Amino acid sequence: MTLARTLPTLLILLPLALACRMHDSGVTVQTLKEENAPASESWNTSMQIMEDGKQRLTMNAEYMARWETPDSTWMILSGADEQIGRVTVIIFDADGDTSAVVTSQQITYQERARRFEARGDVQVLSGSDRSVQSEHLSWSELTARVSTPGFATITTPTEQLSGYGLDADENLADFSLARVSGTVLVEDE
Length: 189
Hints:
Blueprint: H1 3-19, H2 29-36, E1 40-51, E2 54-69, E3 72-78, E4 87-92, E5 98-104, E6 106-110, E7 115-126, E8 131-140, E9 145-147, E10 151-155, E11 159-169, E12 175-184
Antiparallel strand pairs: 1-2, 2-3, 2-4, 3-6, 4-5, 5-7, 6-7, 7-8, 8-9, 8-10, 9-11, 10-11, 11-12
């Protein structure tokens, strides 16, 4: 093979070889972990949220992680062992009395929206002997409303009702369910 025949081939392959060289993008497994890492972590946490100088709620968890981005801040609270650990949230009414106690395996709190998402064996007990059991429950601090996207059971002193799409006030006194089944105690006059 002569130099005149290989020179055009080399001229074509040389730019391709230069274009295919490795570039350092700066992205490594470590930088990806750091980007997704929480801004802070705490263990055996007790946190209080105040409103107008009064205690609105207390959250207790074995583990808490907090993330901050330019457009949102959120926390995830859980047990140290997510399978058996429990998070407890105590909600207070305007008079400072306990309005409800929520326990679950994990709670996500979105600070700007003031919204809580409880997941995993969620149990809610209100101060009026009413309770809710579900796998997923949302509570909006702004509207003082509780909702479940899926199945829930609500128990009151006179009834036990199960259904889908619970929507209730935080005291569980006023609520609605869809596709309901259950039992109701009816007293004779």
